[in-house]
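Case study 2.
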Amino acid sequence: MKERFIRAVLVVALFAGGPVLAVPTPLETALLTAVREQHFEQVIDFGAGNEDHPVSALQHRPAAPVAHMPNVDVAVIQLDAAGRAVAWADVLLSRDYPQGLVVPVDLSAGAASVRFRRWDIERADGGTFSSTGIRLSTKGWTNDPPLTEADDIVPGRTNAAFQFMAPYPASLFKLMVAFHVMRMVDEGRITLDTTNVYAIAGATPEPRKVRDWLEPMITVSDNHATSALLKMLHDRAEIEPLNREFRELGLGTLQINHTGAADGLGWQPGQIHMTAFDVARLLWLIDGGPGELWQEAGGQPVTAALLSDSSRAFLKQLLGDQGFNEGLSTANYPVAPNVHPGLPSRVAARWIRASNGHVVVEGADYGVDIRELNRQAEVAFAHKTGLTFNYGSDAGIVTSLREKPFRHYVIAFLGNLGYRYADGVFANRADFPVNDPVSPVVYTQRVPALGRAIDAAITQLSH
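Prediction:
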């Protein structure tokens, strides 16, 4: 591992305009190529705002391409059949690194060469806007006002070679909640059958077993269930232990800060953080593997024994039952209009309507009979998505299905590419494509195309 780290830290500016001091690994080359080939600079932007006030959205037609390269963070850890790491890579894309940056990463040190900054939507948009799209104030990307140490997600990286403003992970952060709840189960402080009562001011107390809060939080990204579990963590003084454990595991960019103790709400950009390589390592830990996976901050080995077999199986079952296959995978509707095929993954049978083969999740009808395509799927994708007006993410564990070409890897994608961003075909739309009652196009289709390209590269590298 030490030799790998020495090699990795030499890749300080690969394809980013600086000196190339080491030969990239095949996976690093493949990941950078896949990111570049999606041309994220060509996505269109419907306008600044948020879910409640999409300020200039839909007011000007046609919608213009993005003013700046989006911020994208994508990481992959390639595994063998037993779950041992074979190769790993992380690529950043931003207005600072418009050609993409292969990040020097190490399984134990992570992306220590990057000074990760808290997301600031005003810096990304260049200021604040009125409800009619009039600029009210200006703010610079790194100045006006200048960035300070208060903007750092992880302290102590003032001399880091690179910096990157990490996009809000959206509902991907629910993976952190689920992981910590299962750690509490393994430590005997609760069980999956413990009744948790969600009691907040002005509402009837709602009792459910812990498992019955976890299941909708992961499979359909239920916000109400998430609030209930976050309030449970606050009630039991578990938020700081959650953050502390991630720090001790060397996953310091995984943080949940400033949520409401009274109701479990208050999830805000700039306060909840995740970065792709730390997410990938967390997913690897959930997937499991033999021996030492990496070394924690104190030098002790991190092993799969951190989770019990039963907790690991439960988490992987929830992730495998994901209903929203519309990010890195578009398995819910791979041949719908304006949809690009992503990871060739299988959809859990529970979401497929017997009468017509359509995937229907939380009222969304994806409009395509997928039964035959589902039989042809090549991989299982146990994953969690996240989507808001400004942000989109998807991360999970990919495992080849029986008799299909072998691949086994974890993948994590985070970006400021929520549903305000789309593809050129939608530039004259009168409404967001995410709002279509049938076959809603949720992410720019450059995201599933990226998933497809990475899967093809991993398949080739695995043989």
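The chain has a mean pLDDT of 93.
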